[in-house]
Specification:
heterodimer, A: Rossmann fold, Rossmann fold, 4 domains, eight-stranded mixed beta sheet, 30 strands, B: Rossmann fold, six-stranded mixed beta sheet, globular, iron-sulfur (chain A)
Chain lengths: ~900, ~450
Amino acid sequence: MKSKVEPLVNLNINPCKMCMPMGSATAFYGLKNTMTILHGSQGCATYIRRHMATHYNEPVDIASSSLTEEGTVYGGSGNLKKGLKNLIELYHPDIIGVMTTCLAETIGEDVPGILNEFQEENPQYKDITLIPCSSPGYGGSQYDGYFSALHAIVSSIEMEGTKNNLVNVLTAPISPADTRYIKAMLKLFGIEAILLPDLSENLDGEHDKEYNRLPHHGTHISQLKKMGGAKLTLELCSFERKNSVAEYLQNTYGVPYVRLSLPVGLRDTDAFLKALSDISKLPIPEELNKERGRYLDSMIDSHKYNASGRAAVFGEPDQVYSTVRLMCECGILPVVCATGAACPELLKKVAPEIEKLRNLYLTEAYKIADKADFKDIEAMMIECKANVMVGNSDGRRIAEDLKLPLVRRGFPIHDHVGGQRLKMLGYEGSMEYMDEISNYLIDTIETSFRETLYNSYYKDTLIDTKEMEVKPMIDSREEEMKRKTLEHPCYNCKGHKFARIHLPVAPACNVQCKYCVRKFDCPNESRPGVTSVILTPEEGLSRYLAVKEKMPNLTVVGIAGPGEALENWESVKSLFEQIRAHDPKVTFCLSTNGLKLPLYAEELARLSVSHVTVTLNAVDPHISGQMYQYIRFMGKEYTGDAAGAIMVANQLAGIRLLIANGILVKVNIVTVKGINDSHVPEVVKVVKSLGCFITNIMQMIPVEGSAFEQVEPISNKRLTEIRKECEEIMPQMYHCQHCRADAVGTLTDDKSIELKGFLQEEAKDSQPVKTHYRFAVASKSGVIVDTHFGHAKEFYLYDYLNGEVRFAGKKKVEQYCIGEEHCEEKEDKMESIMNAIKGCNGVIAMRIGMEPSKKLAELGIKPVNTYDMIEDAVKKAAAAM
Amino acid sequence: METENYNKNILDARKSSIVITKGCDGKKGGICCDSNSVSGSVSQRACVYCGARVVLNPITDAYHIVHGPIGCSSYTWDIRGSLTSGEDIYRNSFSTDLQETDIIFGGIKKLEAAVDELMEKEENVKLIFIYATCIVGVIGDDVDALCNMKSSQYNIPVIPVKSPGFSGNKSTGYRMACDAIMKVLLPYRGKKKRKAINILGDFNLAGEMWIIKNYFKEMGIDVISGFTGDTSYEQMIEAPRASLNIVQCAGSSTYLANRMEEEFDIPFLKVSFFGIEDTTASLIRVAEALKDEEARKKAVLFCSKKEAELTEFLSLYHKNLAGKKAAIYVGGGFKAISLIRQFKAMGIETVVVGTQTGKKEDYEIMEGLVEPDTIILDDANPAELETFMREKGADILVGGVKERPLAYKLGIAFCDHNHERKFPLAGFEGIYNFTMEINKSINNPVWEFVS
């Protein structure tokens, strides 16, 4: 079941962003021989590693200062310094990025200060560059963390003063494959550049013969130092940021800069290549012009497919912006543009692009949002009727729900392989990207057009065929009913070879019939209302299963009290459900006084109860009222005519409902001399008109202690007369045996008394036989012997009996050894262990010390040392006894 | 093995947590475990919050609100394979997404507004968990007080989960989650008992809870509630009626079992459904504990049938797998022990074994099960795993997805035994999957090209 959750203002539901340290760690991965450490709880590093490892499919090692409670209260500088030392010892890095977390920032850690102290205290590490990077989890998204790290790198590194001929190339977050594209282009134009960062290899490495755990590719520190002397900075990022590295280099070192969007799509790739051409003073090579031509050609080839695209684009701001530009060139209309980051400029920048295309297509609304969560994105997609999603893997749940294709780009891609190799830069990268989207759009039409068109236009007279199909179903149901009735001993006098079981799960009653005394244990009597014991539904099930095994002709399970079945509804329901789970065929029947029948008639049908017996002694309220001392209905007690009126109304309404639901109804009429004996034919007429199957007219048998104790029963002769008279109206039952509430067997052969011993035993615990071994087993896992005798907090007791091993319970003990220092003085605790295992023949533990072994031996308990599986250990120990 | 390689790759502070030749038993203090991670060592462990989230998150109709900055919520959003047969609210990740201003002025107002809005806009909110992450306590948000207030205001349980990452390790988080569960259950103390069980420490990864429940159905044993795989609020609060609890993931849920025994008088049994032996023994033992002879008979019959069905399959694969060497690095001791035994059954020797949160006794058992020169390590880092897997010539690593790329870089096969997997490893069905998983990777042609 899909739960409906609405977008909320005060809660982010399903984040479309991650936290700052994620982005910072990624950026540091673009530097050679560089490690990072997160100053905070252990979990942050682990979570970030897990996400990066699944996206890049590379080992990702990020250390943590593993702040503890103490560090949080008294400051974490000790942890951080120790962490740095360990990190250096394990990885020998040239650079360490020291990133903060929300915890470090909140407790006010002065990371630059701690790093200075560290280098003063450890002159041996003076050659290692430590770069403090502020990246509190609450300070922004991973996008912000990425730029924060770039800024920290450039501002922490001491630049060489001399001018050089290099070009700084700064990129917004892109994949390693796209980084390789940038490098290839720079090379093509002969531009010597310093890439910040260069993720091309550290996060998409080859399979080397030798694995080197330190990221040993990327931009080297010696290169980074030259950034201040470069002739130009090229910043490939569409958004002006406060902490722009290009601006910093210009302001600090006078390096001029050019800011361009990422080279995605035609216009921005053109601009990028033109810039490279300008810098290198070389013309754009012919092969790139050809690539451009092919891309343009492909845009034309797929433009009509693209025109059906209504895309939802989401992810980091640069990725969203560049994707929108590409789409608006090739005819895919972005109807939802969203980023989880705070980026109000996104709206300003993408709106004109989309507006233009929308006007061309004369079409629908679109939405742009920053600080969006996936719940917002989903709502916008539904509103704007998006038909394709373009963004990171986290959109997959919406894609699944809305059954839309998801073209994966950005971070994270953890449900597909190759996230690190996805391309969107340059003409070729753009072409791959566009083709992927176009093909999904084509697939969507291809896989749905037959069905869509069929559903829209194909009309036929389906109604006739439906009717034909339904009919056999009714037949088979009637067939089933017939079989069940034939096999039901109470509904068919030829059914006597079939056995039934009455399960006494219904003790409570809501009426007091004047002729009834409900008794619990009177094996000498055989009447309704009498039973030896009340069963729980579970016990009912076991009794059924046990009896079924002994009586294969058992076809009917009935509930006939001792109280009123419907007054014990939960038990009855549970019993039927449990038995049905075991036996799909067995017939369910039930007896009721009918008072609550209107409430449960439909439920009974649902539980596949096929036969119901209703005791209906009168259809006249005044007569009916005389049959009951009182009735209890809806929390009130009624007597006399009121009781009669309620009874009759409910009984008749209930019978109608039963019959409407296809249940076979037998009506029992208890005939009481002078009260309803002459009213019986009237009752039979009414129930006949309702559609009942059979009536069973019975003598009232006076019972000691009941209100009708003194009333004389009608004679057998009179009974036969009444039955004969009524037979003219509808079929009569002549073979009723007045069964007990726990009757078992065929009508003529009640086995309930005979089976009593067997039935009781089944409920009882199995008695241990005297000639057996009992072992106390020290186990923590409960599966294998894995605990020291002295450490055991409890023992598992096992019985060994003729080759069989049986779990016999658990026994708790007070520990006598809770660590070495306590051991000696707790010697007296031995007592409590010995108490726990008293009566055992042996003790099995992973280890039992000398002293305890001796004591055990004195008590005649055999000590066994092992770490086997419990059952095996017990068998072996028993064999050794 | 105090070789140069060893000294180069292993931090001094970590040496006491690594056992090269026998010695877990503690003559000289034994293996160092159950302690804080060594700072800077690149531990594979997560945090308290992670532990709490693992245990609680599978409750399907609860609203799990993470109070803190976005990361904690983002990194744990629906990445585990816990399945549902009912509602799927738990698959959403709700966060108060705290910002700089909230850090300065406190986040409690935001949290309160969030709960109010949830109650106003969502239909049928039955249960809310509020996870307090690292900075919540530091900025002075009183989550407990807010939860109390909202519980009584809306008359539903709004339960705080104390899980600041720094307040211990993952096991602390398990305890916090168990405490939160007990807060939900306590009002239902004193319900009438019936013959039925609860299954603790199973999170319905890849439908494992369903598989186990099917077995019990086969035996005629009624299961009231799981903790917490595929469990709803309504099922949970029925749990105090059970006559027996069984505990599958002992590391996370023994504490809960103990508390349920104290409060509701439900005894518990530890069980394992990994491997034929464990599954068979566990099912039979549950029937015995319930003194249900009928169920016992059915279990014996059922398990021997299943075992017979497996024979041919296992002997087929045995040929392909016997003689290989395995490295194990998993979360808890219980799982590691069970893996060593399962590998043994396949004819595979375990040469490196470690866990994130194993206890001393777990390590002693492991030592008993493996060859004397097997490396045993607690809270290992990538450098150690790399060193020892190479040293010992492991053919396959069983671990979580963080460790996967390392294995691959070293040219070693890999099997995911973590919460993210999409194939069941429990029960008889799990034996097929586990064996095939191992074979798929270990006997893949790609390794021919790596020398």
